[in-house]
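Here we describe the complex-level prediction in full. Unlike the single-chain runs in Section 2.1, the two entities below were treated as one system.
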Amino acid sequence: MTSQLVVNVLLAAGQLLPMALGFALIHRTARCLHFAHGAMCVVGPYLALTFAGAVGLPLSLAVVCGIAAAAVAGAGIEVFCYRPLRRRGNSPLSMALVSLGLLVAIQNTLALVYGEEARRLRPWAGTPGMEVWGARITGLQVAAVCCGFGCVIVLVALERGTRWGKTIRAVAMNPGLARVCGIESDSVVLSAFLIGSGLAGLSGIWIALDVDMMPTIGLGALMMSIFAAVAGGHRTLIGPAVSLVVLMSVLQAAGLFIGAEWQEAVAFTILIGLLLLKHTWGAETGPRPALP
Amino acid sequence: MEYIIHLGIMLCIYVVLSTSLNLIAGYSGLLSVAHAAFYGVGAYVVALMAIHWHSPFWLSIVAAVAVSGLLGGVVGGSALRLRGDYFVITTFALQVVVFGVLNNWVSLTGGPMGLPGIPQPVIFGWKVSSQGGFLLLAGLCCFFTLFVCRRIVQSPMGRVLKTIREDEVLAQATGKNVAAHKMLVFVLGAGMASIAGAMYANYVTFIDPTSFTVMESIFIISIVIIGGAGSLWGPVVGAVVLVTLPELLRFIGLPSAVAANIRQILYGGALVAFMMWRPQGLLGEYTFEKKSDEA
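The structure predicted for the assembly as a whole is:
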């Protein structure tokens, strides 16, 4: 049972890590609560389904196109919605409101086009998987875990070792000073949205390949991403990754002892407590200055 | 005619909800995504008291207001410590937790199966069983809510709330008890939302958690934004626009499942459009445009 618990934690974390990292990247760089990130998680797999079905692409290529479509959609939201608001001097709260509206509109548009019922992305039937140290896991799930943790390694390496990573960190820490040093915050934020939304699409595709997809799968994944970003802080991408793994561990344990249906309620009770405790410890629990 | 009366009842319920949220978000500048939680708690308290204890309607309302008000006080308390994004996340989290409790505590709330058979209210010997009677009751509750809100807004408390909205540091510097005002506005707003929940529960006689999700909170926010935050009549206009106009979809022959999705797309799209191009809404004065308060 313990080994199955560990496998479940790794699988859940592996599927959600790309989305959580994407949300953390966007949140710390653009300084806005991007609820529409949950919609990007759904855009990816549904468009991959269209590319595979209606267009006739091989699944691997359709998946890449789905991820790209999610990335472009996220970038479009930044260019056409958030950037004009930022330039007008609007507060991050107004962007949060816009993102709520986008989440509702995009989710229901997908439901209208594709239907509310569960759709299958993978063309093959589910398999019982292989037994590893007493736990069962499928090849697809192994790939999801490797991909998820691989994303952490790649993103942290990019953040630490590339010029892009330095500009992202500069804008995240002090956008005013970054601008003084010649860093154009708009293009940096755009890159964060491109990569972050693409990662959300990737998470959605792994979830869809594993358990099929519905227009509402993004909301649960969004909640976990928000938890990871808040608990992990915005100084580094490792924090949200570690927070997500810890969260999944707690949730799987809660599922075992209390019941799986209580996982979300447990997660968010912990989040509320964490936010209030962070304030008590003097950590930042107020809004950071908006981008100039 | 029955359909129009039904529309009127739902309109009154949403006016109460949006007016109460307007007090919190529009006048105080505290964006809360937990309003459906207060609405749901009110509905369930009334339903449970009516079903299990056959309590009088007035007592159920008082209990619902008390429980929701207490929950609102908890949220208001968190507003003392958290600002901006973190406060929105906290209210979002609370909404999820409350939904989780309503959906999973099967022995108390019926879980996903909900609570059927809610008896119709009896108010001082008058059994409210007809649609016309419910419209009158809903209208009275709506009028009461607007009256209370108007008194609050025009009182010194209302001026303090607006000051907190515009500049919390200034409010503190002038000696106003910001903490008490934030708590109080949440208690009042949550209490009023529970009245809407009570009306809803008694009118439809069946409630389940799917009526009180985060999407419902977003819809209530949309009404406030589109009608106009910070204006007494803004939520009324917003409710008329968002509750009645999409009903026109019924008359163009769309299947109900499709119409439901289109309605949600219209709500979401309208929220985005108004925030982009008319953030003050149709009648409002507050735009959420001020840079984040760095207090």
